[in-house]
Amino acid sequence: MARINVLADDVTLDEPMMVEGLPGVGLVGKIVADHLVDRFEMTHYANVHCDGIPRVAVYTESDTELRTPVRLYADEERDLLVLQSDVPIHPKAAGEFAGCIRSWFEEDGVVPIFLSGIGTDKGDSVPTLYGVATGEGRVLLDEADIGHPSEMGLVTGPTGALMNYVLEHGLTSVGLVVESDPQFPDPEAARVVIKKGIEPLADVEVPVDTLVEDAEEIRRAKEQFAKRMQDADDESTQAQPLRMYQ
Hints:
This protein has seven helices and twelve strands. The chain is α/β, with parallel strands linked by helices. It has an eight-stranded mixed beta sheet with strand order 1-3-6-7-2-8-11-9, with helices on both faces. A two-stranded antiparallel sheet has the order 4-5. A hairpin with a 2-residue loop joins β4 and β5. α2 packs across α4. It comes from Halogranum gelatinilyticum. Pfam families: PAC2.
């Protein structure tokens, strides 16, 4: 049965922002989500049980406890949630996944911050970040001084399905799109998302020194995950210029 199984009933949140960290181009969302959970030592708030999620169990180094592959973490002090996923969501299951958690957005007044990489050969230049929004999210973008898109585009995969739902139902959300490596994990793109996007939107300060110092180690650690996504021929979450379809 599709459901959000809350584990930490003692955590109180007031219309929190939720950083969505589903795997996609450059693994930007995955890297950002993992970093926030680790640096803020966030509480394992809930397990996500959806038909679109692969039926697997996850374990970590030096810990015997099994976990569901998609989880929610909470930081009560910062009024912040993170959706963390250890598995890719196949595009054919994107609609099911979005339908599983959509009512939770509304019931708990969650404001999602969706993340997507747009594959670009950016060389050594700093990745460009821009924002899109639904509902009152446009006000949030302006207050955070986040730029607008420079061209038409679309977002695919499970993140695109979630965006489609909030758009259809007039809910408030923000989407952050960043230039990222189209083939390999991109810690630099994740750093830009955190400093130029999440910090001003959620009014938090996130140390990113380890993202910079350990970029190569992070890239190697995530490459196996990225290869699994490619081997599965998975049209994962990504932003694409709309001219590709014209």
